């Protein structure tokens, strides 16, 4: 039996997101001081107990990028092309999000799409349902989402309507124009990280972008510290704060 632990949060996935965020912060600290790895170990155990597959997979990706940055050649390449890497990754996730729900509605490569939908716990089907009923708009629209009532033992599946994909949620609710704004904000953040020399911050950026495929939590301040970082300064303690012209 696969037992998931929520640690007091409403869902195990919510707990997984919180532990993911803590681990990301500790990965950044560990890059400069290896002693922080000991603080990371209990949170890795907690994350494993939640059974949150997406969060566990993203931690693995974060660890791989962390190790890659320790190789001077890879570090130099990422440092030079950081903005381009972030833009390509962001655009790729948006294209993937849109194309997969369109393919689901049109029945293209149905066997593969059904397997992908199952692996993503039905998220593609929900996105396709909203796409089919509301479509894309430039400035967004109201969508009457409906969540499961946890106080009831039984519920009607057709009453459940939710969207976990952050990019689709931006497009459907706020419009394509705000997706462009979000893209430009990430571009500005990547430029700030690039010029600050703190390339390690590519790790939370990559994780947040990938997480947006399956979790709309990246749009909320209580999780996405990167949104706050859009207006943050990344200067090292021995650096003066850069002027606007530097960006």
How would you describe what is shown here?
By secondary structure, this protein is mostly helical. It is 62% helix and 0% strand. It has helices at 12-32, 37-50, 53-69, 72-106, 110-119, 123-134, 166-174, 176-196, 202-211, 225-229.
What is the molecular shape? globular
Task: Estimate percent helicity.
Answer: 55-70%
Strand content: under 5%
Q: Write down the overall mean pLDDT.
A: 82
Number of helices: 10
Biggest sheet layout: none
Radius of gyration: 19 Å
Structural class: mainly alpha
Residue windows where pLDDT falls under 50 for at least 5 positions: 149-157, 237-247
Question: Span from first to last CA?
Answer: 53 Å
What is the total tally of β strands?
A: 0
The succession of helices and strands, N to C, reads HHHHHHHHHH
Please summarize what this structure is.
The chain is mainly α and 247 residues long. It contains ten helices and no strands.
Features:
single chain; 247 residues; 10 helices; globular; disordered C terminus
Helix/strand layout:
Layout: H1 12-32, H2 37-50, H3 53-69, H4 72-106, H5 110-119, H6 123-134, H7 166-174, H8 176-196, H9 202-211, H10 225-229
Helix pairs in contact: 1-2, 1-3, 3-9, 4-6, 4-8, 4-9, 7-8
